[in-house]
Every structure is written in C-alpha cells, then in structure tokens.
Amino acid sequence: MAPRANWKGFLRLSLVNCPVALYPATSESEKVSFNQLNRKTGHRIKYAKVDADTGEEVANEDIVKGYKVDTDTFIEVTKDELENVALESTRTIEIDEFVDRSEIDPRYLIRPYYLRPDGKVGHDAFAVIRETIREMNKIAIGRVVLTNREHIIALEPFDKGLMGTLLRYPYEVRDAAEYFDDIQDVKVTKDMLELARHIVNQKAGHFDPDKFEDQYETALIDLINQKRAGKPIVAKERPQGENVVDLMDALRKSIGGGGGAARPEPSKKPTKKAKKATPGQKEMLMPIAGKKPAKEAAAKKPTARPQRKSA
Fold first, then answer.
1. What span, in angstroms and rounded, lies between the C-alpha atoms of 103 and 106?
2. Residues 274-301: pLDDT tens digits?
3. 242 by DSSP, 3-state: which?
C-alpha cells in the first residue's frame, strides 16, 4: 500500500492544469529506532510540555506559536493568522521556468518526492506536462507549500510520473569560502597524480545502490539479536589510523600491496553475512518494529549479502 500523500493540489503549466498528489520518495521507517527508558524501572520516558517559568504542564489547546524578539519578549502568532498568509502555492504547483539540470547546484538539493495524478481525471494533462519536460530535457521549477513553508521544487520525468526535489533558498546555503580559504595551496606532482589515477582505475566501477550495505544498521541488528539471545557482548577493536610519513611511498603501497590488500574485504564479508541469514536470526528480527523478516530472508537466500528493502 502506498504511503499517505504529503500534499494534494494542482500542477499547472500556463493554462494546463491537473490534480496531483505528492508522496515521499524515501523512507527511514526500516531503520532500527530506540525508545528512551528509565534505567531503574525499565519504563519508557514520556515528554510533557511545561511552562518554562511555572513548571506546570500546558494543554495543547493553550499552546500557540511565538517569535522571539529578545530574551523575554515574544510576538504571539495564532493559527488563524498563519492561515491568512495565503499563498497560491498552498494548493497549486505553478511551473515558473525551465532550466538545465547542470545549472542546479547540488548544495541546493534537499529531498525527493513522487508526483502523480490524483484520482481518475487529469491523466491527459499530466502526461502532456510530463512528456513536454522530457522532450525538452529540462527541469521544471515551481513552488509548493509543505509544513506551512513555501519551498522551491524541481520537477523532472521519472518513469510514468514526476520526481519533485525540494530545493533550498540561497540564504540556507553557507559560503564555501568560510571553510576552504585556509586550505593550503599545494602543488601535486605529476608522479603523484599518475599513481593516484592508477588507484582510481583499480577501484573504478558503476554506481549500483543494491551493492551498498548500511553496516551500522546491520551491526545494530546483530547487537539486538545477541542481547535477546542472552549472549555476552564483546567490544570490538577499533581500527587504528596510521600517520602518513611518505606520501609517495603510501601511494606506491596502495597500488602494490595496499591496492590488493583492500580487496580481500569483499571476499570476507559474504562469509560474515551468510551467518546472518540463519533461521535463528529470522526469529530474532520478528519483534523489531518496521522490519519485514520474511521478505528479507527470502531476499537473503540467493546471495550472501543481506538486503534491507522495503515492500
């Protein structure tokens, strides 16, 4: 079942418009999450909204928003007043312009959404807008209101729908000069570049998200399974970083012994992961919220690498 839409309204290109729904394209519900507990009782911690001065709990209907002017002064803003700040983008994504993908600075990208027709009507108009963007090989720029804030959204064809990526405003992007100005100007020799290029060629590949594993998530599940099974938890040794004494020597070793030494890890990992695809672990994963052990177990059997895929 598809998740609930984050936003519903209209997509408009000049006089062409259609009803659409916006859905999150990513999810973190499959990740392990923790509750805070009282160490003494084992009970969950409950958070209460209290008055900062009196310490008394405040009912939800008595809570309003306020803008801080100085230490003790706030300007109160009611829900009705916020709703009166009516923006066209509250109900309509108006396409303002079309730009080349290369012109969008990656620093401005926030998060992706799926945009599709809402209901049985408007599919023709949606297809016209989608295929026009695809044919022109452009990115459509519009505005949308989410969580009471107006956002810039970049739209591009994605399969039969559109992918909308929220963009940051310029004031949200920090100036790189604040961080990079102190970096020393170092002249890299031709020999160093050739050795480094050789390392890059050894590790060259194609981007395939399926081959990446969230190792921390896997370690968390392993930790929980061990604790549920009553097994002792043994602290693992942390890898020690080595000081680079001779950069050229380090590059040469990376190509010779180092380049080959970095590759045994993948051969070791399948053995380690095959251990996780045991019947014991499938039972352990059952109580973890958000996990789908039956489907994961089926996905793990063909290969030694466990995959965390949502249904």
1. 9
2. 444 433 333 444 444 444 444 444 444 4
3. coil
